[in-house]
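Q: Could you fold this chain for me?
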Amino acid sequence: MTDTQLEAFQRDGYLVIPRWEYGESLKSLQGIAKRQLDAAAPPLELEAQLGYPGAPEATSLFGSETPRRLLGAYQREPLWREFAVSDSMAVSLRQLFDDEDICLSQAHHNCLMTKSPRYSSDTGWHQDSRYWSFDRPELITAWLALGEETKKNGVLRVIPGSHRMKCKSSQFDSDLFFSANSDDNMSLISEAKALSLSAGDLVFFHCKLLHSATRNTTEMTKLSLVFTYHRRNNRPLAGSRSASVAEILLV
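A: Sure. Below is the predicted structure, expressed as structure tokens.
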């Protein structure tokens, strides 16, 4: 990773790496994702469970079993596991964290993220750090696009530099979403950028980066493989969900 890329991540809170995966390796990851989604074996999270705007009702005859995330990705597939702790991933994360000892969190993300054509939902503006419990809000997520990600199918939208902001609790609603109604927040949201991705592109983003996504209006399911990492000395708080599953040290 170049100095320019590292500076961009520090400044913006995210970094897109084109063609992180390609060729047969990418095809294998895509094939596994489709097979896993078809099986939809637990553990998983359903759109209806969260009830975000656009999600089907839990009692609906149609769409109530639509997966939002297939959880436990690290344990599901050997190739997913290899991707998550690969040498290239470890090297990049050590540069981004400026630390040698990096762990993968199995408690957060660690999933195949999906957006279904007819039953996906809108995810409001939020910081992942507000739902996680660590000594310090210093985690990085790696998001691999397994297909095209565009404005039509629920692309990630981010507010560059928002990871460096000191947000007030009053800027968030009771569900810890960044309120879209206040004038101050609307001004920030107007600076948002859509991270259009091609299959195989990877995004690293900081856990305090404000981000959102709309629902999928195309006819194809959007699939992304997502893992989150932290410094080994940044401990999950005892008794929290963040500490509920053993972390994986990258070697």
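A (continued): Residues 139 and 214 are 24 Å apart (CA to CA).
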